[in-house]
């Protein structure tokens, strides 16, 4: 780039050279001729007219390098990787490429999952999964070695300095080190010691490429913490004040165990914030003096109804802010990545546009699976101005079009348009039938009747008679109706259109499940029982009728990925707490264990004789234990639901020490944070979505309407042939069948051009783009003011039509 | 107004005539000269130069009528009364005036409260408040007669047609009718029958003038209902589906009482949504098969964590919209009221401005308690343009300045500026001391030490020793420090400034209470015990330190009125449910009542012998009954908190019928609605407030800063004297001491003018005004487009400066 002025006059050359060369190549050059960065890729300057094959080859190599680096930039933009981790030289590049493909990611993930799953088989193991110490310790060592190998690759790619600066990686490395030593100790001693550090294992999972969403959630949780803690302090403060008050007021009552000491008072009031011991905690005092209820009413009004809601308000507010900031930074990061990539793709002759050739080269690295036709169509979709090259403004939209699935728009409306006349008429009739309102409402009616039928049938089973293995005739009738409906719809709409609607997919799968259930019933297969039982889910279809439900369910599907990642985040917290719980509380509770505690009843298991009948009076709570990781998870879920959690706490406490309460209280506060975040997320998402609907007055009336992002591109016959030619001769791409198919289709259709539709489903980011439309413009301006890079100064004439128009398609 | 053209040339006349005459006068006129509305108040047209006293008098009367009607319009605007209930003639006016003063309002309120309180003494009465049937029935008849009298006044004022059209009044009348008959029946039979209609009594309270906020809340609740019900149906739907599933899966297990029948399944899962029976409901199934926990986890995830939050989101969203709409309609209603009043106040000579004389006349009716000085200052505050008359634009701001408390700005900074030198220096020193950061933080330190001291002291009391009646020395020391602090602050800042800060008031009252506690301790007065116990609240002062807490607490105080009205709304629901509960479930539960139900343990009261010690094993839940209205309220509060509510439900159900569950489930759903609204309100208010702070970047750093609305008005000496003169001679107002005081103060100060400050605390409406600033402008435009009234056409030259400038101050 530095001596680009030398080549400024070389216009009209077929083989343009990149304005900026890949940093990998520069590095290579610098190795060859130390200190002399101006030597550009050992390229002999080609003379016009008679291109030297060696020079051409080397030039192509140089372009390839640029494509690759641009693809890496785009990848970094997509993954929100910071650019300071960008590979700096050829060696780093190879490590980068090794560490950035799905195979490597899957290995990373599997290792992390394996490490976490090991706790199923370690010391307090799930009975049927117990492994010998040397087996699970060896497995652990193996997994840890894999992690170490992955870290080495990262070190190679990042370089030592960047590696040390990267906090997450350093934490991972140190945890790895500790785990390694501990695993060896376990292997040597042939017995597990107190290994609380296992609680840190989720770090490996969090660091996986595929768990980016979990990382973001964790960051968001940590960002919401400061205001949360402030309000939490207020909560705890009132708790202590009321504990002192309660102790003073009620400790004189010997029948009141809840306020007998100050510690008991504090614990009782802590539990009371969760409402788990209400109204029991009030009862002894209440039975002595009816006015004592005022103490509890005031306490609950302040703590539960005011401060807890305040907590939600504060978190909700912070969450909103953080969401917006996150969206902004991601957007600007992507923009910057696109700019970097653009710099690498423009040629010296046309420094303000990317032509198809370069774009295609980029896509071959960035999306290797994409067909030549799709690459071409994506280029066309970006190229809104109609000029032959993409300006930077066009190129900014890259991330919006990259995920599109392209399909030629059908010339006819129906899939059966080409069939013979009779078939056409029949199918047309079916089509009209299944699209009619009457058909739809008839089906709703059938489903409703089915629902009532199931209810009545189940209610008649009340006498405890188990399932008969005779298939009830109602089952067969309704299933037949559903089956006919599915068949009609598939034939009427065509399989493609039918299966492209989420609701139809739901109908289809429920019907298939019901059919499988029928088979299970008919052939008397016990294990498939549950399928029969899932029948009532058929009724969910009824919720298609009302607009609001469709809205809610659609939003639910749009938000599902985020919800799943929040769930995973919760599971990671569970895992850590489960490990700690297992290490300290495994096997401490058992039937009749806690007879000295206040919750003895819940742990009791005795035979009681009433009249002349002996029945087993079970407390069952001994089942809520930390005896293995599965039980721990269930116990922790019960603690999350909060009701009666103090029974588990008191049971464990009575068998261990008072300090055990700290574990349970900490867990409560942590889940409260996570749950509040989840509530805030759902609130935010739905309120956002509803605002969006209001703002854009979406016509959400048609239930079969696909609500996604659609791009249209028209391709003319000449253009298609030209492109095919270009790909064949210039680019040397071998697999051109997709392009050839397009040309054939064009020819066969008889039209001079064909419209292609690119579709993808809408994401939260698309919604945000529309919601913050005005602010985004401001962000961009602010960004370009502060981030105006030296490279960009050479692109002042961005979008000037004369320049773009002067260039040809390649 | 119709023949106003006749008088158009009469400028320069001292006694101007109103453009529009009060509708009361018109009515009078129409009585005098039927059909001839043009005869304006029997006024003989005065001849210039020699005003006829009779004509003047009658003119004054005409103006007085106008003032009164304008005041009524303003009142209607303030109270959000629709204008179609505006009194139409002189007779209606007298009824209106009778029914619109605080005495009448208080009577209304007292009657309603008396009616509600009667349930304390009726049939299932609170023991020490029991009254004979003829006593409480007579009281009721008396109260109902009062209500009937109030209704008659309303009928007189509204006229029959409007009365019938007014829905709320009609409902009230019919309820009154039923109650009347029932009360007479009770009196005749000398015994209470099943009187569920008593549950309707809160209607009388809701209809009170002072309960406008409650009415608004109820309206908001009803408006949020449709989306709420939609989501509730989704919730119930999943409940039924899972009940069928659960019944199929778990009914085979005879040890599982929760899913033995379909009804039990539904009830169990309904209770499970409230989490009240978790994990117990899972335990029998879980102990048989560990994987059955999946059923419960999935159910809770869908119902509790998803749909319940969705409910909140939907209500929150609706609530937001309703809040905004409500604000808009109130604002426009007020604007319209101001316009109506303006029309009545302008004179024929100056049809586009209101001068002080008219304004003063209005205020004498609208705010009879206001002093002449304050009326004058309010006029000045409105009169921003500096012209001698208020234009309509000025007048629009009326509601913003009407509540201001006026005070002359002190010339000096301190209250002790006028004291002799020595005293001044000492007080100045104290002033600097109490304002210093060091002093503040020293006090925080003392409070913190006090807190720790109390905690340690209380903890040392753990051995159950009751309070000694010796005053602990620490108590005296800390109290002395606080006392000294209060005295220093009062002397340093001056009592006025000290008590104007909410935080200081809090400090002061806590210290006074502590002092009272000390006396109670010293003189051994048992009943005042609780004061001693309130000591820890002193610690609340610590929360002044941090910005966020100040913010939260300030917001809390700003929102307190709304919160209180929401609380009152909840109590009204409680009342109705309590009455129904008492009618059906009074005295159904008692110790050992429910031995056949699943919750027998909670109602058991037996002596258990463990070893050689006999202890009373109490279930206590028989205390949660509907035996009188106070118990019912406590029981309903327990049901609101939700935890273990099913024990109360099952207890009552086992003693009555299955249908009793309907009562409890309905109550749960109703409180869920109200509680969700409360949560939505708190969320909305805080998020709104935080956005407001961010948007306006408030300097909230100074804890002593008063955050209110402040208006400034400068009054010159000549102006003051002129005004005094005007009031004395022209208006004939007798009580002018306030104005005279002002003149004296002006003279004494030696300055030519004095600045007065008008303050009031900020309300939610002020915040909304600022938040919706831009939208408000749009609303106004839209409003004036659609509502352009014929009266306004005569005021096209609004705000034209020439017209205003031509007029003198009176």
Automatic annotation (TrEMBL), chains A, B:
It holds the Pfam family Ion_trans. Residues 109-324, 437-687 form the Ion transport domain. InterPro entries: Ion_trans_dom (IPR005821), TPC1_animal (IPR028801), Volt_channel_dom_sf (IPR027359). GO terms for cellular component: early endosome membrane; endolysosome; lysosomal membrane; monoatomic ion channel complex; recycling endosome membrane. Keywords: Calcium, Calcium channel, Calcium transport, Coiled coil, Endosome, Ion channel, Ion transport, Lysosome, Membrane, Repeat, Transmembrane, Transmembrane helix, Transport, Voltage-gated channel. Residues 787-810 are annotated as: Disordered. It is found in: Early endosome membrane; Lysosome membrane; Recycling endosome membrane. Gene3D superfamilies: 1.10.287.70, Voltage-gated potassium channels. Chain C (1.20.120.350). It is a multi-pass membrane protein. GO terms for molecular function: calcium channel activity; identical protein binding; intracellularly phosphatidylinositol-3,5-bisphosphate-gated monatomic cation channel activity; ligand-gated sodium channel activity; voltage-gated channel activity; voltage-gated sodium channel activity. It catalyses: Ca(2+)(in) = Ca(2+)(out); Na(+)(in) = Na(+)(out). GO terms for biological process: endocytosis involved in viral entry into host cell. The chain crosses the membrane at residues 103-121, 133-152, 173-192, 228-250, 262-282, 294-316, 438-456, 471-490, 502-521, 563-582, 662-687. Intracellular channel initially characterized as a non-selective Ca(2+)-permeable channel activated by NAADP (nicotinic acid adenine dinucleotide phosphate), it is also a voltage-gated highly-selective Na(+) channel activated directly by PI(3,5)P2 (phosphatidylinositol 3,5-bisphosphate) that senses pH changes and confers electrical excitability to organelles. Localizes to the early and recycling endosomes membranes where it plays a role in the uptake and processing of proteins and regulates organellar membrane excitability, membrane trafficking and pH homeostasis. Dimer. Interacts with MTOR; the interaction is required for TPCN1 ATP sensitivity. Interacts with STX7, STX8 and STX12. Interacts with JPT2. Found in a complex with LSM12, TPCN1 and TPCN2. Belongs to the calcium channel alpha-1 subunit (TC 1.A.1.11) family. Two pore calcium channel subfamily. This is Voltage-dependent calcium channel protein TPC1. It comes from Carassius auratus. The lineage of its organism: Eukaryota, Metazoa, Chordata, Craniata, Vertebrata. The gene is tpcn1.
């Amino acid at each position: 780039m530095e001596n680009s002025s030398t080549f400024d006059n070389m216009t009209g050359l077929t083989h343009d050279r990149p304005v900026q060369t890949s940093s990998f190549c520069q590095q290579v050059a610098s190795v060859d001729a130390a200190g002399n960065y101006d030597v550009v890729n050992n390229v002999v300057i080609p003379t016009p007219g008679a291109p030297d094959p060696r020079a051409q080859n080397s030039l192509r190599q140089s372009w390839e390098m640029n494509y690759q680096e641009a693809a890496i930039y785009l990848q970094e933009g997509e993954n929100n990787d910071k650019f300071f981790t960008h590979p700096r030289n050829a060696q780093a590049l190879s490590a980068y490429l090794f560490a950035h493909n799905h195979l490597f990611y899957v290995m990373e993930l599997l290792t992390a999952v394996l490490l976490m799953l090991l706790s199923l088989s370690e010391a307090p193991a799930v009975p049927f999964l117990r492994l010998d110490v040397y087996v699970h310790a060896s497995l652990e060592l193996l997994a840890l070695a894999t992690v170490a190998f992955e870290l080495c690759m990262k070190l190679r790619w990042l370089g030592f300095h960047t590696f040390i600066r990267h906090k997450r990686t350093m934490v991972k490395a140190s945890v790895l080190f500790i785990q390694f030593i501990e695993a060896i100790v376990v292997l040597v001693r042939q017995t597990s010691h107190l290994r609380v550090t296992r609680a840190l294992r989720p770090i490996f999972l969090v660091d996986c490429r595929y768990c980016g969403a979990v990382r973001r959630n964790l960051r968001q949780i940590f960002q919401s913490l400061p205001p949360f803690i402030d309000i939490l302090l207020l909560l705890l403060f009132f708790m202590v004040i009321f504990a002192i008050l309660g102790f003073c007021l009620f400790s004189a009552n010997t029948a009141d165990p809840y306020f007998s000491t100050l510690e008991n008072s504090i614990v009782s009031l802590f539990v009371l914030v969760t409402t788990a011991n209400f109204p029991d905690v009030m009862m002894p005092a209440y039975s002595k003096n009816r006015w004592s209820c005022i103490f509890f009413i005031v306490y609950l009004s302040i703590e539960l109804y005011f401060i807890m809601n305040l907590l939600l308000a504060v978190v909700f507010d912070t969450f909103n802010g953080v969401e917006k900031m996150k969206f902004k930074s991601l957007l600007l990061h992507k923009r910057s990545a696109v700019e970097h990539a653009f710099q690498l793709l423009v040629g010296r002759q046309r420094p303000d546009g990317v032509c198809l050739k370069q774009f295609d080269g980029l896509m071959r690295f960035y999306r290797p699976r994409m067909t030549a036709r799709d690459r071409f169509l994506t280029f066309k979709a970006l190229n809104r101005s109609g000029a032959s090259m993409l300006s930077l403004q066009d190129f900014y939209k890259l991330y919006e079009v990259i995920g599109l699935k392209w399909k030629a728009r059908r010339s006819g409306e129906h899939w059966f348009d080409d069939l013979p006349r009779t078939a056409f008429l029949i199918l047309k009739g079916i089509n009209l039938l299944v699209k009619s309102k009457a058909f739809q409402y008839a089906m709703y009616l059938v489903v409703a009747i089915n629902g009532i039928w199931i209810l009545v049938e189940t209610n008649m089973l009340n006498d405890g008679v188990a399932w008969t293995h005779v298939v009830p005739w109602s089952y067969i009738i309704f299933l037949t109706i559903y089956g006919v409906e599915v068949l009609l719809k598939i034939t009427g709409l065509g399989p493609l259109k039918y299966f492209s609607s989420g609701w139809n997919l739901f109908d289809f799968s429920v019907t298939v499940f019901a059919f499988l259930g029928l088979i299970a019933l008919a052939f008397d297969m016990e294990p498939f029982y549950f399928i029969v039982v899932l029948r009532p889910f058929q009724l969910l279809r009824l919720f298609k009728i009302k607009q609001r439900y469709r809205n809610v369910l659609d939003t639910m599907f749009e938000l599902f990925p985020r919800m799943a990642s929040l769930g995973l985040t919760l599971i990671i917290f569970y895992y850590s707490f489960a490990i700690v719980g297992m290490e300290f509380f495994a096997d401490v509770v058992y039937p009749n264990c806690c007879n000295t505690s206040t919750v003895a009843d819940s742990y009791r298991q005795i035979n009681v004789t009433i009249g002349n009948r002996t029945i087993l009076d079970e407390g069952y709570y001994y089942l809520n234990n930390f005896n293995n990781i599965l039980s721990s998870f269930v116990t922790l879920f019960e603690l999350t639901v909060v009701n009666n959690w103090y029974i588990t706490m008191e049971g464990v406490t009575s068998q261990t020490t008072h300090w055990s309460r700290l574990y349970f209280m900490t867990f409560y506060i942590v889940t409260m944070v996570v749950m509040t975040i989840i509530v805030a997320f759902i609130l935010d998402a739905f309120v956002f979505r509803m605002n969006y609907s209001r703002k854009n007055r979406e016509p959400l009336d048609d239930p079969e309407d696909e609500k996604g992002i659609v791009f249209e591109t028209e391709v003319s016959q000449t253009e298609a042939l030209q492109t095919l030619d270009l790909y064949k001769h210039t680019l040397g791409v071998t697999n051109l069948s997709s392009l050839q198919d397009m040309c054939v289709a064009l020819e066969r259709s008889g039209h001079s051009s064909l419209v292609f539709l690119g579709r993808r489903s809408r994401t939260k980011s698309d919604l945000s783009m529309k919601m913050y439309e005005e602010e985004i413009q401001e962000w961009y301006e602010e960004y370009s003011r502060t981030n105006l890079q030296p490279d960009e100064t050479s692109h002042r004439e961005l979008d000037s039509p004369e320049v773009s128009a002067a260039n040809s398609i390649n």
